[in-house]
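ok so i was messing around last nite and threw this chain in just to see what happens. nothing serious, just curious
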Amino acid sequence: MKASYLFIIFLASLVVGCSSAPEVKTEKQTVNLLSVNLNAEQIKNSEIKEGVPTKELIGLTITANGTIEVPPQNKTVISAQFGGFIKTLNVLDGMTVRKGQTLFTIEHPELIQLQQDYLEVIGNMEYLTAELDRQKSLVQQEAGSLKAMQLAKSQLAMAQAKKTGLKAKLEMAGVSLKQLNAGNLQRAISVVAPFNGVVTKVNVNVGAYAEPTEHLLEIIDLKHAHAEVIAFEKDVKHLKIGQSVQLSFSNDNEVINAKIFLIGKEIGEDRTVKVHCHLDTENSNIAPGSYFKASIYTGAVERFCIPADAVVEMNGKNVVFFSKQGSKGMTSYAPEEVNVLATENGKTAIEFKNKARSYNENLVINGAYDIMSAILIKTEEE
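result:
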């Protein structure tokens, strides 16, 4: 009986032990691995000191991303004004072209018909002009009617209007009126570059039919390329026209200088503003659409500053440490994320992510790396 009683007690203790296991595990999971407790000796050995941020003048550099763009007036789309079949294509994507250079030739029966109509109108105008002169002469001799003269005058005016319209259409199509007036009909019409530039898009093949609405080629003038910087809303108040900007490209170690020319007034849904910058020197080697990182120096600004070593990086974030008195003489240190605004002469200007934080509170100004190391060691042990 006594043995049975002891066995029951053993089973009860085993059940209690098993049921308490999840509680230990849960308690372990809720441990804050981003804080650490240090005693007075550890604090002394690590030379941890605290102080409040101080307002100082510091050169503020804003970093942002952006792309190289070309103004709309320096970018043109080439289309076939009246449509037709592409007979020849003389350019490739990325090729440099000069103003007036033939890009491609196009032919269509309608273009020939336009030229034929134009020549017919010119020929008919000679007859109508002579007929009007004859009717005027008859009226002066009182041998003709005023009505006949007015009809001849009206027919000549209609022919003149038709000639003007056909001439405008032919000029739009690129037909040489000099050759046409000499009686030479042009079967294929040359489409030429409107300015010096680079071909960036070719959407046409020889033999294909091109509709008037199709975008066959695109030409841009790289000499007028500019930098479109995407700045955050919080940084716009520090930006001014004329400020210097340095552009760094991922595929090149060269730094290109620019200046702010225009600051957008519209804030996008992602809380950013477009900043238009002009390059100090034109660079035709920069391809439109290239991504870059911009550094904008805004001059000295009064900011809350702490020693540069007081800011450390944890989990990809910039943090500082605040202390809190614990039990048994221990002090707890926990990180607080900050924005690094600028670093100059061993001082770093900061801005708390948590707006509830006060700049009048003490934070760790010396020994931040030792605290971070202690947190990492504790995390590994956990």
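not much to say yet. The two ends are 46 Å apart (CA to CA).
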